[in-house]
Amino acid sequence: MQRLAELPHSLALNALGFSASGRAIVKPATLVLPLAGRTMVLGPNGAGKSTLLQLIHGMLVSDQGSVGIRQAGSVERPVGAHELGFVLQRPVMLARSVLDNVTHALAVRGVARAEREPRARRVLARVGLTALESRPARRLSGGEQQRLAIARVMAAEPACLLLDEPTAHLDPGATAAIERLLCDWSAAGTGFVMSTHDLAQARRLADQIVFMHRGEVIEFSPAHRFFTSPDTEIGARFMAGELLD
Predict the structure, then answer these.
(1) pTM for the full model?
(2) 138-155 tens-digit pLDDT
(3) CATH tag, 10-91+160-239
(4) How far apart are CA 75 and CA 218, in angstroms?
(5) Quick count: other Cβ atoms within 10 Å of Cβ 87?
């Protein structure tokens, strides 16, 4: 498995794994992911993609290995409590206005009261929801809710964004809007690690690919290489559209 060149600030997975009832759900994985990069996690259903993202974030506590932020000179430190944001496939909206959903998230993160609304309005403008800030969040369309979910996370200014198939239930227009936001934030220095079943989406977005099967990271390589000449037979079978056992 190829080791990509490290950037000055990277997300380091050090033999990170998880087991339950004696079965390895995610086998120990050692990867260095650029914080400002666009990493797509691919694999069939049950490959362990969602679990890997949860382990990276810390919402699922690993029983093997660790995650850290690696800085210049290979100096590594633990990930801070709110340095990694997480966006679910189906976001949960609070029974509050669009604006209040963001300000509440900032309050939970300990942001000073005077700073919450200005920061919330800035991020809502960035995701195109300014005109809807007074609307009940639960009345938004699916695409609007997903943009609000991203806004709630990005308002806290994370070092990296983790997304678990955020466009799986969206139409093409809403999907394109989410992709543009992610690309804009990545260009500004906040990258993402995102799982998807959509190979066309992965081709559009990815700098690098993490390919998983049966809880194991099988390949980690530049996107162009994975899409044109996977390093493994199982990767080639996946790209050919075969059902993997």
Answers:
(1) 0.93
(2) 999 999 999 999 999 999
(3) 3.40.50.300
(4) 27
(5) 22
